[in-house]
Specification:
Strand content: 15-25%
CATH class of one domain: Alpha Beta
Shape: globular
Radius of gyration: 25 Å
Number of helices: 16
């Protein structure tokens, strides 16, 4: 799930709120919420900078997905939701691609928040409608909150843990009451993450059951055709109530959007080259470097672009499942880190295109650096006796090799760490001192393209006397095993935003790891980390948020819960030359749904393909 974690900035007219008369609190009424300074777009903006407000509507675009699906409800644990289904829903507010620190009114025309952020009141647009023409009311908004919080994926329970209730002030006005310490994120996560669900629609339906019948939505598209596990097609809602809002002008231009499913990325790549679909965001260095030297690119029928981005890249790494007793030893986890030879892997398998990740908040001001600052030490000192001493020194730096492939120096360091921790190397096997048995575990992965990387890692583990078995499974089995934490080691991806907050409970919180389907893949259960997360969430402003996040970063890194892998600082786009787009690209995330089918390019492409 793509997420926006933001917080409130005073950006509107100051009034005396009716709910704060005693304290004479000033409140803010605004069209937008932002964390970092004033929102880019004023209340009277006409359209986003990176769109063509007069872009033509029409045409069909074909896209791809991997694996399969058996549900059209993306908000529950059960089933595999169809890709793109979010296009059928709307939220109170929405984030533009060129400003990841802000959100603007969608279903809500304005939001009012007091200084202590103890509540937030959203005023709904009079014209906001579900696809059946029924209005979106305060009752629907309250129903949406209560439903996803009680019955939705665990993520919502953590995001909305401090949202006590929704109160109906009128048919078009709903007030959310917040509990706990002052939390700058709460108005924003309610605004941007809460999907609008129809209370009337679910009076006769079970929200928790998977379904292949479309859920009543209010977004720019509706479901047109469904072929479970094979394809899903969406059609543009021509009379969509929000089509002329400034936040949407020039967007959602395709009449129909079809996602076809492929078994894996290798097959999907071949399908793209055969023009079975139109647009692809590549994430494989090998594929990007060697996989697209085909006639379509050489003839100009296919456009290949590398676009730098400025967004946080988060963390990707080989995750240890701490629910397995064999991984409880921090020294073992640290030693295994030395078995990952990034320099050789990047040169021979990634074509030198990746950077090594050394922070859970990489490519971001939030990443820990150097030694802890006085502000960080204030946060960390109360926990000193429960933390590794390394936390109070230099930040984590990944082991470096000479790139030769032997990795001898790092493996010697790993063996030294293991011996100091009581591990024994006998008969070329690493012996667990707790069980007196050789250490063995399985590395679970789903993408066949990852096999070379995983195999190289396993080869180095073998030199440490560790038997690592590779286990490639299909997407359905992979999703099920992750949901139930049925793995020893796998690759985990932890996306971050410019303003980390409530979602950190879901990533690292003790309670999250006890529930199936959470993002706490490692099974971290540490009261110190729980406390650091709460400190982060309660940060009163952006300046105090930075040291709180960096303190958490240090503890996560020096706890060695995973082996950090790699990240990119740009996007790889490849697409058939049938599209138009505005000349300004969002710097943080290319927005494909601001593109349109260019009739002249489309005709020229069809003519060229017909002449082959």
């Amino acid at each position: 799930m793509m997420r926006l974690i933001l917080a409130l900035v005073v950006a509107g007219t100051l009034l005396i709120g009716p709910g704060a008369a005693k304290a004479q609190q000033k409140t803010t009424i605004s069209h937008a919420l932002s964390l970092i300074g004033k929102p880019k777009y004023d209340a009277d903006f006409k359209h986003l900078d990176f769109v063509d407000p007069d872009a033509p509507k029409g045409g069909t675009v074909n896209l791809s997905a991997i694996g399969g699906f058996d549900s059209l409800n993306p908000y529950i644990v059960k089933g595999r939701a169809a890709v793109g289904i979010g296009l059928t829903f709307s939220s109170l507010m929405t984030q533009p691609s060129d400003e990841p620190s802000a959100e603007y009114g969608m279903v809500a025309e304005s939001v009012e928040v007091p200084e202590d952020i103890s509540w937030a009141t959203f005023t709904l647009r009079a014209g906001a409608r579900f696809h059946d023409g029924s209005p979106i009311t305060a009752d629907d908004v309250i129903f949406s909150l209560e439903t996803v919080k009680a019955k939705g994926i665990p993520l919502f329970r953590y995001y909305y843990a401090n949202v006590a209730k929704g109160e109906k002030l009128s048919a078009r006005k709903v007030k959310f009451h917040f509990t706990g310490p002052r939390n700058r994120e709460l108005p924003v996560i309610v605004g941007q993450l809460l999907p609008m669900l129809s209370k009337r629609f679910f009076e006769t339906r079970d929200f928790e059951k998977t379904t292949l019948s479309p859920i009543l939505g209010s977004g720019p598209y509706r479901v047109a055709d469904v072929d479970a596990n094979r394809s899903i097609t969406y059609e543009r809602v021509e009379d969509w109530w929000a089509k002329d809002l400034p936040i949407n002008k020039g967007r959602y231009n395709f009449d129909r959007v079809q996602f076809d499913y492929y078994r894996d990325n290798t097959i999907s790549q071949q399908a793209f080259k055969a023009h079975k679909y139109d647009y692809r965001r590549e994430n494989s260095a090998k594929a990007w470097a060697t996989g697209y030297n085909f006639a379509g690119v050489k003839q100009g029928l296919v456009i290949k672009e590398t676009i730098p981005n400025q967004r946080p890249t988060g963390m990707q790494g080989f995750v240890f499942n701490l629910r397995r007793a064999k991984f409880h030893d921090r020294a073992l986890r640290q030693a295994i880190d030395y078995a990952y030879d990034f320099e050789w892997t990047n040169r021979h398998l990634y074509y030198g295109q990746y950077a090594r990740t050394e922070s859970y908040f990489s490519n971001s001001v939030m990443a820990a650096r150097g030694k802890p600052t006085p502000e960080e030490l204030t946060i960390l000192e109360p926990h000193r006796d429960k933390l590794p001493s390394a936390v109070f020194g230099e930040t984590y730096h990944a082991p470096k090799s000479d790139g030769s492939g032997t990795n001898r120096a790092n493996l010697r360091t790993a063996l030294k760490i293991l011996k100091q921790a009581g591990w024994v190397f006998r008969d070329r096997k690493l012996i667990d001192p707790a069980t007196n048995t050789p250490l063995e575990f399985e590395i679970l992965f789903v993408n066949p393209r990852s096999e070379g990387v995983v195999s190289a890692f396993a080869k180095n583990l073998k030199r440490l006397g560790i038997t690592a078995r590779l286990r490639l499974v299909d997407s359905a089995q992979y999703a099920d095993r992750l949901r139930n934490y049925d793995f020893d080691m796998t690759t985990g991806v932890f996306a971050q935003t410019e303003s980390p907050g409530n979602e950190q409970r879901e990533f690292w919180g003790s309670e999250a790891g006890k529930r199936p389907g959470s993002f706490n893949l490692m099974g971290i259960e540490d009261p110190v980390i729980d406390a650091l997360v709460e400190t982060l969430i309660a940060a009163p402003d952006y300046e105090s948020l930075i040291p709180a996040v960096r303190a958490l970063d240090r503890v996560l890194l020096h706890s060695h819960y995973l082996v950090p892998q790699v990240h990119l600082k740009f996007d790889w786009l490849i697409y058939w030359n049938r599209f138009g787009r505005a000349p300004v690209d969002p710097s943080n995330n290319p927005d494909f749904f601001s593109w349109w089918v260019d009739s002249e390019k489309d005709a020229a492409l069809k003519k060229a393909e017909a002449g082959k």
